[in-house]
Amino acid sequence: MEEEKKRGSLLLAVVVLALMTLMMVASATKITVGGNQGWSPNVNYTLWAQDKHFYYDDWLFFVYDRNQQNVLEVNKTDYESCNSDHPLHNYTTGAGRDVVHLNVTRDYYFISGKGFCYSGMKLGIHVEKIPPPPALEANSSSATISPPVAAPAALAVAAFIAGFF
């Protein structure tokens, strides 16, 4: 009976740790550039991006015709002039399914070379820090805990209590 309790407590602790890990990973978002249209000519990416927020640790997915387009990160000047001669980074892997990890808060500029930038295949975005959770009201009489803290705390308490049953 005692051995069964230990196994149950260990299993619960493993589940709690797994849930906490999932909560941390869940903050990153996968964003398919261009939505259903993907990375293709004659799409206004400025219009597509204008109502979106791009946060630190998000991922951009570029889906395109691998035989024609590519994904190049360039500086602002080359972005504005569609100059693909000196890219900062070439994300093209040849599969037409390229991924960019937005792991620095800054401006990013992407174009497709081979003349496709002139057909609108250019994207400029600003990556920002994830906003903090809303602050508690100053005159609030009851203290609350934000969800990212509350869930692991509740699970830890549950694991502790389960050790007694």
Would you write up a description of this structure?
May act as a carbohydrate transporter. Belongs to the early nodulin-like (ENODL) family. GO terms for molecular function: electron transfer activity. The protein has about 160 residues and is an alpha/beta fold. The protein has a domain at about 30-130: Cupredoxins -  blue copper proteins (Immunoglobulin-like, Sandwich), CATH 2.60.40. It contains four helices and eight strands; from the N terminus they run αβαβββαββββα. The protein has helices at about 1-25, 45-50, 75-80, 145-160, and strands spanning about 30, 55, 60-65, 70-75, 90, 95-100, 105-110, 120-130. The strands form two sheets. The protein has a five-stranded mixed beta sheet. The chain has a three-stranded mixed beta sheet with strand order 1-3-6, with no helix packed on it. α1 runs antiparallel to α4. The chain is globular, with a radius of gyration of 23 Å. The protein starts with a helix and ends with a helix. Residues about 10-25, about 140-145 and about 155-160 have low confidence and may be disordered.
